[in-house]
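Archive entry. Fields below.
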Amino acid sequence: MLPAGMVPSAVAERSVRWIHDNLGYFDPFAKSSISQDLRHKALAELVLLCLLLRRHENFRSLPEIRDVMAFVAGLNENAFFEASLCRWNDALVPVLILAATLEAYGLTSENNRRQMIQRIVRHSNVCIIERVPYRQLELRHILDAGGFAHGLPSYRELWSRTLLAHRPNLMFLSDDDVYSITHALFYVSDFAARSIDFLSPQEVEHIHEAVTHLLGVYIRRKNWDLAAELLAAEKCLGRTSRHSVMGWRLLMEAQQADGRMDGPYLKKLADNERDAEHLFDACYHTTLVSALAGVVWSRRS
Amino acid sequence: MQNGEIVRSLHAAETWLRGLSVVLRQRNFSERSLQCLLGLWVCERALDQTRRDGPRELAAIISKQLAPLQEAAISSCDSKLLLLALYIVRKCGYPAHALESYGRKVAGAFRQYAATHDDHVGERIVLARLGLSNYPCNIAVDPSVTHAAAHDVLRGDLEAIRNLYARICAATHFGTQECRWFRGRGQIAFVIRVLLIDALNSYDLATGAMLLRLAAYLGPTNEAVLRDAQSFLRLQQLSDGRFGQYDLHAEALRDAGLDASLDLYLPLTVSCVWALAESANPGFRLFSLSSLQL
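PREDICTED_STRUCTURE:
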């Protein structure tokens, strides 16, 4: 339990407001000095957040979310998505997220590509190409979330290949390793929507201990991106701790008045890179994951 | 000591320190000789050896080096290190007049104060072992090491970490006594483990070694984080026994006028062996009577 006044959903709502106010920067087809790949990544992450927000009555009814989903539905009409699906293996996950989210919001149009996606899943290489384990978990999670048939191994089996399943030495972890830890927990728990039933209570306890210590490390480093992910990961384990109270207090203190959460690379921007686009580039992910943490910590409707 | 890997690690470090002590014998007295003596002593006591060859030979040299010197020659050295060196030289059966004189002077200074500051508890404990002072029972440890204070340290700088180190060393007499009265002890232990992960992950081995000892003082020592830290430190040991993968920077060190063996590897190796010895074996504490007595 968090103390009164410490409301993760308020962090999420403020983050959603910032996202809404910066929506144009999520458009991968707009002219930009930022790479198109980064815009596509940002869009996919935004759409996944919307899928999670849909699960909560108090978030899905936010006027900002209606606007965001209208924006996403408009982008979905672009021929790029269908073409990329047929041409590139790594396009499947973003297109799946898009399709699953639009369906969840009842926004499927004549451009509904469910059948095409299902054919690609069955007959192309997308499920058998080599991915790092947590990316394979990601694929399985979004296929399940979207209700697509597939032949991927079970969560337990996919989990057994992850870094976290091998009890890593925390002293050696890089930031990328920690992202793989948080993401593995997101996918096996469906972002805290289900308990991880293949882990014993002792295993959960051990993983929770690692997560809380890493949370402390990233709070110390003022890396709100991984701190927010680790707070969300803690909830995915069905656990909370005294350290999460500290984490939420500091995350709330770090949030800017407009809802933005400063990303870990913001300080590295040169003075001539402090324009709105670069600011977005440096902060969008941290703001998204802060919203995500707020969502998974909120009571589900 | 139970942990075979750590025993092997301490043996290797002892071999390296012995080699370095040969170099130090041919030089003028410096604080480095005292550090090397302490490292050899820790290895020997932790490994429960009885031959005392390592520290004895260097103790004899230090005794000779210091014989013609006045106290001024040692005034720039760390006071805890000086007192520990006095203890070791004495136990090895050699005179050390400059160190004795220094010890008496420090003991006299402490007698004038009713309470001891956190930073000086180590000196008080060694002075008591030397018979120059009473055992320090009246240590004025600040009881405000609470939950909130621990969180401040979590986000604090190296100075904040050093202050926490001094407080906990004072409260636990360098891990030789239980400290039940800490409010929020579990929270402080958590913060120390976080700082330990952060330090070693950032390759700050000296701070990491210090925090590993601190984590061991608060216990329990069978925590996964402590085992990970021990494993990490052992993996930083070079084949000749010294600690730290810094050979990459050897040229830069030379350019800066530093002797890598003495100025970098020696203090780091002593810190690492001390941390490994104390964290692997709760029965071994440098400042405990059993570790200090021969």
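CURATOR_NOTE: The interface with chain B takes residues 167, 169-173, 206, 209-210, 212-214, 216-217, 219-222, 242-243, 246 of chain A (CB under 8 Å).
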